[in-house]
Write a structure and sequence with these properties.
Blueprint: H1 19-23, H2 26-31, E1 36-41, H3 53-59, H4 65-69, H5 72-84, H6 88-102, H7 105-108, E2 111-112, E3 122-123, H8 132-141, H9 156-170, E4 174-179, H10 184-188, H11 192-205, E5 211-214, E6 225-227, E7 230-231, H12 239-252
Parallel strand pairs: 1-4, 4-5
Antiparallel strand pairs: 2-3, 6-7
Helix pairs in contact: 5-6
Amino acid sequence: QISKADYLVYNIAIPSDTPTQRLRSIDKIISLKPELVVYGISYRDFANKSTLIKSESSTKNLFSISDQFFNRNKIMNRINNFLNLDSPKFVTVQVLNSLLSSLNKQNQNNYVLINNTPFFPYLNEVELIKNSTELQMNFEKHPPDLGYIDNPEKNDEVIAIEKIIDKLEKNNIKVIVFTTPHARIFLENLDIHNQNTYKLILNKLSQHNVKMYSFDNKYQDQDIWYDYYHVSLNQKSLVFTNDITKLINQELE
């Protein structure tokens, strides 16, 4: 009998990733024969790209080491190399080493690289936890422009994630879909159209044979936020990480 200790978990998230981009590598992910795929989604994943120009420019410096050192094609090449190898653990080390070698010593002190998370190094400032006043100031200075979310029937991102789910199901790979959490100030200022359309999208996805979990407003008033839509990567804000870990453990039992 296989125990939880026999499993390795990899976070292959990419900054600003979308379902249409992830669809390009799903066959390679399937080729690694994972037991379980856990997919996090949010409002921005389904927005019309042509309406995200303001959002791209206002938030590009929050997380993205790739904006400064790598373009999208280079990141995708790294993903392809990662997914083509029999040993993801080995290539994770390779990717992290190559990232470190791309930075000078001063920059190395500003970024954090996580084991088993090869494509998402982050600025160490995201370990800070901001209080409600700071979140309010952040919101006023950098208000989110989520753009316009097209209805599910004609939404390219919805079509893409449905294809991803179908491919995983056809290969007998378990799938969990969860909605990522946001601070209260974000949720209270959502456009009504986008709120309603997002609900329609979730309802459409729930018709697939996948387990779905909502974390949208679960932690909205807790002191765990780096900004209004990112949980701080801090030991004091592990509640979200712990909940996702529980979901994975439940599936592996």
